[in-house]
Amino acid sequence: MQLTVDIKYEQLIDIIRNLPANQLAKIKSDLENTVAVNKSGTGKTDFQKFLLKGPVMSHDQYSAFKENRKAFNQWRSR
After folding, report:
1. Residues 30-50: tens digit of each pLDDT
2. Which one of 1, 54, 61, 72 is at 20 to 30 Å from 8 when CA atoms are compared?
3. Domain range holding 17?
4. How close are the terminal C-alpha atoms of the chain, in Å?
5. HSE-up of residue 11 (Cα within 13 Å, Cβ side)
């Protein structure tokens, strides 16, 4: 079962201010951890997600790419 409560920001702050000190410390710690996780880069942008889903070269493909690039560079320099 899930319960949804519509609480305004001011009401939430009042509720938090009335909590005991140990629960305030726990909320503060949880919020700091949440902010740290969001700032640490783990929250990837859509573009980063797009790039991470892209194709990856195998070692053999990369070797062939380097050989082709070397051949093109020799051809261009002549």
Report:
1. 988 887 766 666 567 788 888
2. 1
3. 9-77
4. 74
5. 4
Question: Which stretches of the chain are DSSP H helices?
Answer: 9-17, 21-39, 46-52, 59-77
User: Considering the domain boundaries, does residue 3 fall inside one?
Assistant: no
Over range 4-28, report the average pLDDT: 93
Does the residue 4 lie in any domain?
A: no
Q: What letter represents residue 55's amino acid?
A: P
Tallying the residues shown for the chain, one arrives at: 78
C-alpha to C-alpha distance for 63 and 69, rounded to whole angstroms: 10
d(C-alpha 76, C-alpha 1), whole Å: 69
State how many domains the chain has. 1
Task: Examine the pLDDT at 56 and tell me if it is beyond 70.
Answer: yes
Supply the pTM of this predicted model.
0.42
